[in-house]
Amino acid sequence: MEERKIALREILKKDPADVAEVLSELSDEQAAELVHKLFLRHAAAEPLGEMEPDESADLVAKLDRKEASEILARMDPDDAADLLLELPENVQQELLSRLSKRDAEVLTDLLSYPPDTAGGLMSPEVIPLSLSMTVQEAIDLLRRRQEEAETVYYAYAVDDEGRLQGVLSLRDMALAPPGKELRDLVIRDAVTVPVDADVEEVARLFDKYDYFALPVVDSDNRLLGVITVDDVIDVMRDEATEDIYRAQAVPLEDRVDTPWFRSLRLRLPWLSFNLLTAFLAAAVVGAFESTIARVAALAIFMPVIAGQGGNAGMQTVTIVTRGIALGEVSKGEGWHLLAKEILLGLLNGIIIGVVVGVVAFVWKGELYLGLVAFLAMGLNMLAAGIAGTVIPLTLRALRLDPALASSIFLTTVTDVLGFAFLFVLARLILPAI
Amino acid sequence: MEERKIALREILKKDPADVAEVLSELSDEQAAELVHKLFLRHAAAEPLGEMEPDESADLVAKLDRKEASEILARMDPDDAADLLLELPENVQQELLSRLSKRDAEVLTDLLSYPPDTAGGLMSPEVIPLSLSMTVQEAIDLLRRRQEEAETVYYAYAVDDEGRLQGVLSLRDMALAPPGKELRDLVIRDAVTVPVDADVEEVARLFDKYDYFALPVVDSDNRLLGVITVDDVIDVMRDEATEDIYRAQAVPLEDRVDTPWFRSLRLRLPWLSFNLLTAFLAAAVVGAFESTIARVAALAIFMPVIAGQGGNAGMQTVTIVTRGIALGEVSKGEGWHLLAKEILLGLLNGIIIGVVVGVVAFVWKGELYLGLVAFLAMGLNMLAAGIAGTVIPLTLRALRLDPALASSIFLTTVTDVLGFAFLFVLARLILPAI
Fold first, then answer.
1. How far is the alpha carbon of A36 from chain B, nearest alpha carbon, in Å?
2. Which are the contacts of B195, defined by CB distance < 8 A and separation ≥ 6?
3. B400 with B269, same domain?
4. Do A141 and A209 reside in the same domain of the chain?
5. How confident is the model at residue B151 (pLDDT cuts 50, 70, 90)?
6. For B128, which of A155, A183, B158, B396 could close a Cys bridge (C-beta 3.0–4.6 Å)?
7. What digits encode the pLDDT tens for the residues A169-210?
8. What is the pTM of this model?
9. Of residues A13, A244, A275, nearest to B352 (C-beta)
C-alpha cells in the first residue's frame, strides 16, 4: 500500500509526456486504474492529451462514462476531439451529452472538420484582442483568461466581425511599455492558414515560416482557431511514416508492436496485389518459353536487366515523390523533370548497358548475346527513368498520394518491359533462333 | 528605375521566409544584387538565415567580404555557423577574422560541435537569470537584452557556476504578479538536451515533450544554449528525406533540381553497387543453366519467387527501420521482432506459396512443378521475413543507419535465395532432371 502511494506521488511529479509513456507501457487494466487515480488528483487530462489518440481512446472507453466526460472537459479541445474520433459513434455521443453545452458545441464543431485539414488540427481556444487595447489591458485580459487559451505566445487582433487584423507576439507585449496600444505593436499581413488547407500544406507553412503558432481563418478571414507547432511535429512525423510506408505498400497500421495475426491480415492484400503483378511479368517470360529452352543463358540476364532497371527506377521515383512531398515540384514542372530523367536514363543505360553487354559477351563468349544484353539493359534503364517520373506524377494528377504503392507499380514496369526487351531482342538478333 | 524601387519596397514588406524564397528563385547574379540592396537597408541577415545553408553560403561567397562579415554578425549565431560550415576553410577564416572578438568566439565555439549533434543545432544566445530575481527584474533584463536572445518564450535560471536550476516560461512571467520571485515560478526537473545528443534524439525529445525550446547542457549540467522547435522541424524533414533516400540507395544531394550531370555522377556509384549484387543473383541462375535448358518453364517462376520475396521483405524492412527511427525498437527487442517476422514469413509463405503452386500446376499441368513452386515460394517468404528484420538490426548494431541501402541488401538476399530454392528444389524433385 505504502509502495503504491509513493509510486503515485512520483508519477505526479513527472512531465505529462512521461506519464503518457508510463500509461502506454502498462497493461490495459493497470493503465485504466492509474488514469482513475490521476483523475482523482485532477491530473489525468494532460497525459491523455499527450498519448496517441487511438491509445487514449482505448483507455477512456474503459472508464466510467461520468469520469471520462470530466476528463474530456479538462483536455485541450483539439486533443479531446482527436480522442473522440477514435471512439465508436454511440460512446462519442454519450460522452458529448454529458459535457456542458459550450464544451459540447466546441467539440462538435471541431469534429465537423476533416481530420486531415487545418480545421481538424486547430484548437479553437484563442482569445481575440482589439487593436484599441493597451498592452496592459491585453495582458490583464490574457492573465484572467489564460486557462482558455491554447497558446498565449501569440495573440490575435480581430475587428467587430471577428476578422483577423493582425498578430501580436507575447514577447513584444511583455517587453513593450504597458501603455502602448496594440495597434502600434501588431504585425499586419500575418501568415494565415485557410481552415480547409491540407495538413501537409500546414506542415509546409510551419517549415517555411518558423513560427510557433499560426492563426486559422475561414474564407472571409474570420479567426477560427490556432495551430501550434507541436501538433505540426506530430503531423510531420506521421506524414513521413505514411510516405515511407505507402512507397513500399506497407499498410499504415502495421507497426513493430502490431500483433502478428493483425499484421498477417494487413499485409496479405498488398502481397496478393504484388503477386498479380508478378504473374504479369511471369506471363511475359512464359510467352518466350521456347526461346529460353533454346538459349538458357538468357535466363541468367533476367535478374540483371529487371533488377538494375528496378533499382534505377526506384531512385527516380524516390527523388520525384520526395520532391512533390516537400512542395518542390510545381504543377508545370513535370515535363522538365521527365526530360532530365529521360536523359539520365539514356546515359545510365549506355554506361550500365555496356558493362552488362561486355560481361555477357565475356561470360558466354557470344557476341550476339552481349549485344542483346547491352540493348535490353539500355532500353530498360530508359524505361525506368520514364516510369519513375510518370508514375508519381500520374498518381498526383489523379489526386492520389504520389507514393502510393509506387515500388510495386515501378517494378512491374521494369520487370515486364525488361523481360520483353530481353526476349524480343533475342529473337530478333540471336542467329540460332 | 522607378519600377525597381517599388519592387524593393514590396520585398522589404515581406516575411523573411518569403524573401528567402525570392532569393532562391533568382539567378545567382540577381540574388547577390538583391542581397546587397537588402544589406544597405539592414534587411539581409534574416532572409539569409531562412535559406538552406548551402544556398545562402553560395550567395555570401559572392559578396564583398566586409559586407558578408557584417551580415554574418547580424544573423542568429546558429544560422551563421551553419552558413560558415558550407564555405571553404579560407573564406570561413577570413570572415571570422573580420568579426568582433566576441562574435568570432561565439561562432568558433559553435563550429567546434559536430553538426549532427545538439551542439551543432543550438543557439548560444540565452540570457541566464538568477532565482532570486523578481518577475519585474527578469522582464526588465530580458527587455534590455532581447536582441541577444534566440528565444525569450522560455528563460533559464542558473546558479553561480552556470548550472541550470530550472526553466521559466515567459507566459508565466508575463501573467504573474510583477513582485513575485522567480524561485516561485520556476519549473525544476526541466527536460534538458545533452550537448552531444544526436539530432535524431533531439527530434524525439521535441516530438515527445511538445515544448517550443529546450535548454542544452554539458555533462556538469551547465547551460550552453537553447534549441528551438523551428530548427527541429528542419531536422525532422531532413531526417525523413535521409531515411527515404537511404533505403532506396539514392544519394542525399540528388534532388529534383539537381543538374543532370551531377545526378548522373551521384547515382552511378549506387547503380554500380546494385549491378554487382545483380550479377551475384545472375551467377546463381548461371549455375543452373542446364536445369533451365531442360525445364524452361522454371524461368517463368523466377520473377514470381524473387519479386514476391522482395516485396514481402521490403514490408518487413520498412516497418523495422521506421520503428527504429521512431525510437520504438529498444536494444533487447530484436529477438521478439524476429520471432514475429519468422511466424509471419511462414504463414504468408504457406498462403502465397499455395497460390503460386496451384497456378504453376494448372498453368503447366505438372504436379512436380507445382510442388517446386510452392516450396520455393514458401521458403523465400520465410527468408524474406528473416532478412527484413536482420538487415536493419545488423546495420544498427554496426552503428550504421538501419535504412542504408536496405532495398539493395534485401533484394539481393531474396533474389539469390529465391533462385537457389527454385533450382535446387527443381533438381531434387523434378523427375526428368
1. 23
2. B113, B117, B118, B119, B122, B216, B217, B218, B224
3. yes
4. yes
5. low
6. B158
7. 887 888 888 889 999 989 888 899 999 999 988 998 988 887
8. 0.81
9. A275
